[in-house]
Amino acid sequence: MNYYHEVTEHQAIPIKEGVIELLEWLKANQIPMAVATSTDLRLAKVKLQLAGLERYFDNVTCGCEVTHGKPDPEIYVLAASRLNVEPQYCLGFEDSNNGVRAGIVAHLQMIQIPDLVEPTDEIKALGHTILPSLKAVVGHLSK
């Protein structure tokens, strides 16, 4: 466990291909942005800072601030309220099936970018957008 904290607190996490282009596009279109993560608030902010991404986000909402974790929608509802935006007008990005479930129940428009686990048939049936990578998101949103 000490090794995990040493790495995550002092080394930047790898940035997914396409994330900077997506964040820049959202920023250029004046779309407010928040992070909704189960990670502890202090650690989430450190990770964003080390990766050079913190400047893009108006808010960071973390699992330590909610009673129920994903797939419960509470974290998404809280993040949306902190942006002063109704959840149905929010776009959520997720890699996990539980995160997608949470976003759908919160009424967000969800885009799933599978990472380690592919979406199950049950998740695919939710009708959200599934894209192969973050590189594909700007093109999708520009349509």
Automatic annotation (TrEMBL):
Q: Which InterPro entries match?
A: HAD-like_sf, HAD-SF_hydro_IA, HAD_sf
Family annotation (CDD domains): HAD_BPGM-like (cd07505)
**Gene3D superfamilies according to UniProt:** HAD superfamily/HAD-like
One protein family per Pfam = Hydrolase
UniProt-listed PANTHER family? 2-DEOXYGLUCOSE-6-PHOSPHATE PHOSPHATASE 2 (PTHR18901), PSEUDOURIDINE-5'-PHOSPHATASE (PTHR18901:SF38)
NCBIfam families associated with the record: HAD-SF-IA-v3
Q: What is this protein called?
A: Uncharacterized protein
